[in-house]
Structures are given as C-alpha cells and as structure tokens.
Amino acid sequence: MAVETNQMRKFLNDPARVVKESLAGLAAAHPELLRYDAAAQIIVRKDAPKQGKVGLISGGGSGHEPLHGGFVGLGMLDAACPGEVFTSPVPAQMLAATKAVDGGAGVVHIVKNYTGDVLNFKLAAEEAADEGVKVSSVVIDDDVAVQDSLYTAGRRGVGATVLAEKIAGAAAEAHADLSKVSETVKKVNERARSFGVALSSCVPPASGKPIFELPEGQIELGIGIHGEPGRKRASLGSATEVVDVMVEAVISDLKPKKGAKVLAFVNGMGGTPLLELYLIYGEVEKKLRAAGVEPVRNLVGSYITSLEMAGASLTVLELDEELTGYWDAPVHTPALRWGI
Amino acid sequence: MAVETNQMRKFLNDPARVVKESLAGLAAAHPELLRYDAAAQIIVRKDAPKQGKVGLISGGGSGHEPLHGGFVGLGMLDAACPGEVFTSPVPAQMLAATKAVDGGAGVVHIVKNYTGDVLNFKLAAEEAADEGVKVSSVVIDDDVAVQDSLYTAGRRGVGATVLAEKIAGAAAEAHADLSKVSETVKKVNERARSFGVALSSCVPPASGKPIFELPEGQIELGIGIHGEPGRKRASLGSATEVVDVMVEAVISDLKPKKGAKVLAFVNGMGGTPLLELYLIYGEVEKKLRAAGVEPVRNLVGSYITSLEMAGASLTVLELDEELTGYWDAPVHTPALRWGI
Amino acid sequence: MISERVMDAATITSWMREIDAVMRAERDHLVQLDAAIGDGDHGTNMVRGFEAVVQALDADAGAPPGKLLVLAGRTLVSTVGGASGPLWGSALRSGGRLLGDSSTFEGPQLVEVLGAALASIKDLGTAAVGDKTMVDALEPAVETLRSQLREGTPLDQALDQAAAAAEAGMRATIPLQARKGRASYLGERSVGHQDPGATSTALIIRALQKAVGEGS
Amino acid sequence: MISERVMDAATITSWMREIDAVMRAERDHLVQLDAAIGDGDHGTNMVRGFEAVVQALDADAGAPPGKLLVLAGRTLVSTVGGASGPLWGSALRSGGRLLGDSSTFEGPQLVEVLGAALASIKDLGTAAVGDKTMVDALEPAVETLRSQLREGTPLDQALDQAAAAAEAGMRATIPLQARKGRASYLGERSVGHQDPGATSTALIIRALQKAVGEGS
Ligand SMILES: Nc1ncnc2c1ncn2[C@@H]1O[C@H](COP(=O)(O)OP(=O)(O)O)[C@@H](O)[C@H]1O
Ligand SMILES: Nc1ncnc2c1ncn2[C@@H]1O[C@H](COP(=O)(O)OP(=O)(O)O)[C@@H](O)[C@H]1O
Ligand SMILES: [Mg+2]
Ligand SMILES: [Mg+2]
Ligand SMILES: [Mg+2]
Ligand SMILES: [Mg+2]
Description:
The complex is a heterotetramer, with two copies of chain A and two copies of chain C. In chain A, 32% of the residues lie in helices and 23% in strands. Chain A has helices at residues 18-29, 91-101, 115-130, 160-173, 178-191, 239-254, 274-290, 321-328, and strands spanning 34-37, 42-45, 55-62, 79-85, 107-112, 135-140, 192-198, 218-221, 232-235, 261-268, 294-301, 311-318, 331-332, 337-338. Chain C has a two-stranded antiparallel sheet with strand order 1-2. The model of chain C has no long low-confidence stretch (mean pLDDT 95). The chains are: A alpha/beta, C mainly alpha. The structure holds adenosine-5'-diphosphate (ADP) (2 copies) and magnesium ion (MG) (4 copies). One adenosine-5'-diphosphate sits between chains C (34, 38-39, 41-42, 45, 82-84, 87, 121, 125, 127, 133-135, 180-182, 195-198) and B (87-88, 115-116).
C-alpha cells in the first residue's frame, strides 16, 4: 500500500477534504433523496424547493453524522449545511441553503446553541432577510449538563436537535405555516432534556490527535458533541450506575408530570456498539417507569455523534398527541425511515 | 460512582450478562416487532409462528449487532439465536427457535460458515428432524479473503449474511415454499462476495483485552467479524488505495458480467464513523462503475460488526430482477426498515 | 495387580472435577492462545462448559459411569457453543454410550471410550492429525494408552504416558499451519502458535490420569 | 515626526500577510489551547481564514485600505466558521467601513478602526473583559493605543505597547473561568488555561505593529 502512511485509524485521503468527499458519497448513495451542491457545500432535498411548503434547514460542524445531512429528505430537513469537522458552517452556506429550499412560505433555521453556530446563522438570517426571504431561527439548547446562566454561553444543543428535525419536518410536510413550524421546533426544545457521557475522546482528522486523554476506568460526565471533556470526571461504574446519573440529571430538570408519556432517545456517540446501547436502553426504560413516566416511543442508535467517541447520551422528550402524531408521520431520509 | 471500577471503555454490569441484558433492552425497545425468550436466549418475531409461512432463523456469536437480533421482524428473520460474544450459540437455542417459528411449512437455517456455527446448527437440525420439523440449512461463505481449499475451513460468512436474511425474508413473506426460500439464500450467497479491513482490534467484554495489537498507521487486510487479525498486515494508505484493494478483491473473485447491476454494501465494523463510511462509498461507487458494473442499490452503515472495531467491509451482490424485487420489498425490523 | 484397577462413577466424577479445576487455572492461558490464532474465547468456553458439567453430575449422582459421561457430553453441547462444544460434547456422549449401564469398567474399556471419543471428533470435525486441532493431542494419547496396556503397562503409568503423548502432540502443533477451524483463516500466520484446543485436550488427558490415580 | 507616519493599502496588505504567517507558525499551539478548553480547531480556523484573506487581497490589489479591510472581513466570515469567523470578520468589516474610500490614514484613524472592530465584537458576542475571550486581549490593546497616541507617543512605540497590553490581557485569561464560548461549558475546569482567541488576538496586534514598522 502507500509509502507515505496515514497515522490515524481513519479512512481518509486528505484531512482537508474529508467532509467534501463524505458528502459526495452520501449523495452518490441516495440520489433518490438528495443532491450535493459542492460549490455551496450544502446537501439539498432532491425535490426542493417545494412550492408553498415551509423550508426546514439546519447545519453545524461535521463529525456528528448522520446529523444533519443524513436527515435530509421527506418529512425531515430540506437542506443541511455541514461545516468542517466540529466547526460551524459559514453564512454563505446557510444563505445558499435557505434560497434553495424557499418555496415562498419561508424557511426555518434549526440552530444548535453553540456560539459559532448562533453567530453564523445570525449573519445568514440577516442576509436572507435582505434578499427578501422570510426566515425564522430557533435555537436548540437541551443539554442539562450546562447551567443556563449569565456565566455560560447557555445550554448546548444536543439530542433534541434530532427529534426537533423529525417532528418539525413532519409539521412542514403537513403544510403548517412558518410560525407553526418554528413553534413546533420550540415546543420540542422546551419539552426535551439531554445528558451525555464519554468513555473515550475522539480524533479530529485535522489535528490527528485525541482532543483529550481519558484513562480507562474513567468516565466524563456532561459532555457535548464535539469530543470535548465534560463537566466532571469520575471513575466508571456499572452501566446501571451510569444510567442512574443520566436519568436523574434529565428527569430532575425536565420535571415531567406524573404518568407523562415520553420518547426516550438513547444515542451513541459513535464508538459505542449497539450491543451496549440496547443494554443501556433496557436500564433507561426501567428507571423511567420507576420515575413515573411511560416511554411510549424510543430511538436507540448513533444519530448525533462525536466521530468515533465511545459514549452515549440520553434525551427524554415529554410527548403530547400532536408531537406523537408528528413523530409517527412518514419519514424518508438516509438515516431515519418509516411509514414509507 | 462505583468504588470497584470498570476498566473497559464499555457500559456493562457483569461481562457474563452483557448479551442477556442487551437482548432484554432490544425487546424493551421493540415490543411491536419481537419478544425475548430469556429461558431459551432467543429473539422471536412477535407474531411467530405464522401458519403456512416458511420460518427463517439465523444465529451466531454476539458482538455483531445489529446482526442477527436487529433483523428479526416483518420481511426478514423470524428468530435469532445469539451466542455469547464471538461464540456460536448452542443447539438448544436453535432448536427452540426452530420450533417457535415453524408454521408447518418448514424452517430455513442461515448459517455463517464458522466451524462452531456449522457444528452447532448441524446438531440442532438433527434434533429438529427427530422432532419432525422440516429444516433446510444453508451455509453462507462469501469472504474472498479466505481461499476455499482443503487447507482451510472454507470461506467465512460475512456481509452476504445481511443481504441473504433480507432477500430470503422477503421470499418467505411472499409465501415461497421451503425449497424456494433456501434456494434464494443459496442464490444470494453464490452471487455475493465480501472483503474486510480493520484499523483497530476490539475488546471482548469477557477478556477485557484487545484481541490483537494494531499500531496506528497499519491496516489488517482480509479480516472476518470476530476481531481477529486478517490475512496480512500492511501500512495504511489513503482511502482510495484501501478501496482499490477491496473492490479488486471482490470483483476479481465475483467476475460479474459486463454491465451487471449490483448492490454495493459498505459495512462499518462498529468503530468507524458514518463520515468515513460515506467517503468510502463514494470511492466504491466510482470504482465499480470503472470496473463495468452498475451499483443500482446500496446499503451504507454498520450492520455486521465486530464490537467497536474500526474498519469496514465491502460486499457486492450481482442482482437480477428477482433479487432486486425481494430487496425492495417491505421490511420492518429494528435495524432495517422500508416500504412500511 | 494395579493394571486391574477397577473404575466406576466416582472416577468419572473426579475426572470432570479435575478438568473443571484445571480449566479455571488455565483459562487465561487458553484465552491468550485462542486470541493469537482464533477469537480469544476458548478458555471461557471450556470453563463455562465444565462448570456446568460438574453441576449436572452433582445433580445426577448415583448414575452409572456411562450415563454420567453421556450427561457430561450433553451438558457440554448445551452450554459451550463454539467449535469445541459440539466436538467434546459428542465425544463424551459416544464414549459414554459405549459403557452402557455397567457400573464399573477397566483399562481396556477406557481405551474404547477414548477411542470412541476420538472417532466422533474426527467424524464431526473431519480433522486429521497435522491439521492443528485437538485431534493432534487426542489421537496420540489414545494410541499410546492402547499400546501400553497391550504391553501390560500398569494403568496409571500407561495414562501418564498417554498424557505425555498428548502434551507432545500439543507442542507439535506449534510449527503447523492450521487447516481446520478459525486458525485456518490466518494461513501462514497460524504457524508458530500452539493450538488452544490441543492444549485443553492435553489438560483433559492429564486430568484423567490424576482422577484414576487418586482412586487407586 | 514618526507619529505622523502615513499608512495606506500596503499597510493593510502587509498586516494581513503578517497575520497569515504568524497563524501558520502558531497553528498547532492555538489548536492545543483550544483542545484544552474548546474543540481544538481555533488554529485551523484562523489559518484557513487568513490564507483566504491574503489570496483575496492579492486578487483585489489597488483598492483603498478601507475596502481591503472590508474584503478581509467578508473573507473571514465566508471561510472561517466557528465563533472566531463572524467575530473577527465583522470586526474588520466595521473597521474598514470607517475608513471609507480614503487612500491613506494615520494613527488617530487607526485607533478608530480598532475601536470599531472591538465594538462590533462586543456587540455580536456580548462579551466583556473578564469573560475569558478575545475581548480580554483586544480591549486593553485599543485603550493603550488610544492613550499613548494622545500622550504623543510615536505610533510604532504606541503599537508596541498596545501589543504588550494585548499579550498581558492574553496571559490574564489563564486564571479566569470562561463565561462565553465553548470554554464556558467546562465551568471551573476552564480555569488555568489560556484562552485561544485572546492568544490569536495578541498575535494579530503584534502583527499590526510589525506591518506598520516595516512601512516606515
Ligand atoms: N474441524 C475441527 N476439528 C477438530 N477440532 C477443531 C476443529 N475446528 C476447531 N477445532 C478445535 O477447536 C478449537 C477452538 O475452540 P473454541 O475457541 O472453543 O471454538 P471457536 O473456534 O468456535 O471459538 C481449536 O483450537 C481447535 O483445536
Ligand atoms: N461570545 C464571544 N465573544 C467574544 N469572543 C468569543 C465568544 N465566544 C468565543 N469567543 C472566542 O472564540 C474563541 C474560539 O474560537 P474558535 O475555536 O475558532 O471557534 P469555536 O469555539 O466555534 O470552535 C474563544 O477562544 C474565544 O476567545
Ligand atoms: Mg469549532
Ligand atoms: Mg468462538
Ligand atoms: Mg475460539
Ligand atoms: Mg474551537
């Protein structure tokens, strides 16, 4: 094989091109669903813009796959703006995506609450407005690990982003108007909370080095989705103990009403196999019932990741009839598909 | 957290119970599709046995999730027999599964070609016959990395297993008879070839140690799905070079006819993120076209894994109208779903 | 005369107990050997199997030796999985069937029992000596025991030599390239490693010598 | 008198070139700082941005300094992403707008340019001194330059002191707990680390001093 060898445990050609090459592969695999606009570096739903339908776009750094590109398609996103790995995309991408999906009914921007994402989407929304496109931006901030206070940039947007994209996507597909679709994103964000833990760091292709060193037998509690360390480090206990921490953190903050029906989303960070994710789900399900809520819907798998980080996050969404109906509505994207 | 800490980067309670706890979680997450018979340690389709329908079961060591339990459901498997991690299940499990899914039309056993799986399924088939159940066993051996000769146990069963379970599952759902369903499994096996590579080893929960040490910058070529080293080790080149090796190995052995329509399955071994799998698919797609075949269907993701091993495999299936029709038929399982 | 040492159910029970003890002791070593050319589970597989065998026999005390062997074999088949489970499981089953209901047996029958075990392993696994499997340890053990007893060597000495032959066969697997089982997938890379199944087989024969020795 | 040093488009171009050079040189250091309390991309972000700025300016030679600054800002916004892109991008854009079409400018206007840059960063990012951000380096630099020039210090000496003030502000971020940006997610764990954005900001001011010095 090559003389000049790749020192990462990764399949890459040029670290500077990994995002572009991956997007090209995504489009090659799903031509029936989406296209890749390489010039603008955006993934666009094949049949966009749909006249009269509210456009739904999101975006953020890459390295969280399938988020966001893998959620472009029927009943979910109309376009995704992927930045470099763990780096917010730029306003030009968001503006191009906004124009590509505007069917005259306006466009909703789903923005994860990171300073970079927020600032870049803000500049993009201003430019879009200058160009006469109605844009409504909603910030997702569901991570209970971060106190929302004057002393932080506010809570991070994590797992609830996936749920908001699915649910608001269903609303948009049902021809809800601009304010209804953005209200739906807000509603999901208000009724969802998340908490994540890591058992390893991950290696961004650009640096080729782990973002931090986590010795075996240790766990990072309260991580985000950028391979960053968490709020604190502890010694790793049993899965039951870890799930106790996750459920307690989420439920004590969400404060669902007794007997509430919830959606439980057990998400893998990329390097934790399904064998363990289902083991975790089994524990989560028991503990949620013990906490007096009823998991009537669930999602188990690696949907919002930090490259190959070993870890998991729990998101709990308090459902109502409307949200349940939108969740169950047909979706057809590379990463989520049902009802069609 | 716990005083006595877990030295693996894994979410576990007791390594001896990881499989059972994971299966319980799978069943808790998908009660509409399947049930877990803890006594027999098998996963059974919820509505089994279906009178008049051929039963389709498979099984093997655990650690390959979603295979096989994640493929139990409508249009795919009727039951799965999960052994301990990387250890074949025992005949008692296979016998229980066979009886649980026999709707009077007989049962097909899909057996990956590993000595342990083959011998245990053989004993189970004998016992089932003694009990009057018609059983037809088909062995999958699609791995081109192993020469099939007097000097080996024959080719391993890898990626083609997933395709055979989907395609034969559709045939069984369409009420094909016992010989037709087992012929369909054979047909997939004959028309499919696979080749896998690894960029890391993996850590079985029982031993807590990596099966082998692979330094960064090295690649194992011709691996199976049990975290074992491959046929040879080389220095890791670019993704393009690795894909060249995979496509060449598969195509030169499959020898598809010019212009053949194929299904290209890019599978992750568990620890390789989707970002890279799609990058690989982009390369595979170009090279297959260059090799004169047309990828008209594809599957990209981690479907037959080695715990958290970093690596990927390529499976190419030469399609015809019948196989394409069965592939496109509705499927509803935890890991594969479309058309419903 | 020692060579007329009479064996019974207790011999089988203590043989299985000896195996259980030595498999626990050698578990990690067997795992390492299997990790090198297999999938790293042979030690756990054997421990899981023989733990279950010992439990099963305790539950079924008082049965004749043949029945105990059949029970041990069935237990291995239903608890081990992997390649070694059906192979050793069928081996003990056919060995046991051969003893029927007789409550005691002597050296010559022991040879037949081990011969039947070897035959069923070769029949099921289609391996021959030189393929780098458990057969490389078991076949020389059986032949040595048979010839030694024919020459009138006392049973425990004959068993000692059979165990030594198994250990020699085990070591002889090191330079071989595997032709059966997972190790065969490695091609030349299997050369230079001792076969885990041959290793556990040598332990099983040594355990037999101990069990028979104790009883006399 | 040196303090009447007149600057022009060439000053802006060489400033951007100096920044490009120093960001490449400090890239890994900035990555390490960001890896400790952020996400490890600040070095790559700044390099990607200022490489693009230098290319853009080469393409647009001959434009007045204000236009070049606006172009540099737009280029940062459209290439960097992350938090630093919009922040430094808007900063240079508003600094540039302030110069309008005039082909030259002097010390007092330079102060206004940097003041406008600081103002737009604070406006967009809502950070104040002490929040452990680039503001901790930029604000003291601007104030020092303003006061020094008011006291009649020659421009290049004043810039030298401004850069020193930025470096002091950069070091002063070490003991702080971050209140803005990713580092704030770490809570107390952000204490003891130097802020990457404050570090690149100090490099940017030092580069300005170099660029102005060269020209004189
Ligand atoms: N066809 C065969 N015939 C005889 N023995 C075999 C055969 N295949 C494998 N073995 C033995 O089985 C051993 C491996 O057993 P084990 O690790 O428990 O099962 P698995 O290979 O399924 O993980 C090998 O070391 C070898 O001695
Ligand atoms: N709200 C803010 N106001 C001013 N500067 C900020 C703010 N948030 C972050 N920064 C600066 O940005 C730097 C990080 O930039 P960079 O790593 O390029 O972006 P990102 O954090 O999106 O990865 C921080 O070190 C800090 O100095
Ligand atoms: Mg970033
Ligand atoms: Mg095994
Ligand atoms: Mg083994
Ligand atoms: Mg950063």
